[in-house]
Design a protein that fits this description.
mainly alpha, three-stranded parallel beta sheet, 6 helices, 3 strands
Length: 188
């Protein structure tokens, strides 16, 4: 529990504290470019990564910051890298296989991280160049996948999610009232 609590302190409260400091800059009218990094695997369904939902919450929080700021010159990009050959999964990361009851999920994920280290397809220098390029863009994306593994994995997950939604479309739509008033457009 203390490991998870430390992740909450860093990933959630740290983000909120930094963002509040940026709000003070927003109020002064200075343009701000904010990059948030979250490992793409968070959307992949990998088991044993306890902070996945927490970081998804951080991403949602940052999207709300963009919506509330209302100023086009304040930009937030959530960068979702795949595997890059850095020390992220090396000696700088504590990888615990956890409780033996969860060996097929938590343990398997920890072993994968250790075995994958040094074999990641991503080049950190090229990732840095991509981030610098984003600072020059007039309309950078809200979400940017970096690396072939991140892109291919996200595409596969998103298509599977869409396919599942389509297979349940009839049931999903059956919950509306019979007579439907015109649906108002959501603000952009």
């Amino acid at each position: 529990m203390s490991d998870f609590r430390a992740q909450i302190e860093t990933n959630l409260f740290g983000t909120i504290i930094v963002t509040k400091a940026l709000f003070r800059t927003f109020a002064k009218g200075k343009p701000v470019i904010l990059f948030s990094f979250r490992r793409w695997a968070e959307g992949s369904g990998l088991q044993g990564v306890g902070h996945i939902r927490l970081r998804n919450g951080v991403s949602r929080f940052l999207r709300s910051v963009v919506a509330r700021s209302g100023a086009a010159r304040h930009q937030v990009t959530i960068v979702e890298p795949g595997g890059f050959r850095t020390d992220f999964a090396g000696s700088s990361t504590k990888l615990s296989e956890g409780n033996p009851d969860y060996d097929s999920t938590v343990g398997a994920t920890a072993r994968f991280q250790r075995d994958y280290n040094g074999k990641q397809p991503g080049d950190p220098k090229k990732a840095a160049q991509a981030i610098v390029r984003l600072t020059q863009e007039q309309k950078p994306p809200l979400r940017l996948l970096l690396g072939s593994d991140a892109y291919n994995g996200a595409e596969k997950n998103d298509l599977a999610r869409l396919e599942e939604a389509r297979s349940w479309k009839e049931l999903s739509l059956s919950t509306d009232f019979e007579s439907k008033p015109p649906h108002p457009e959501r603000p952009k």
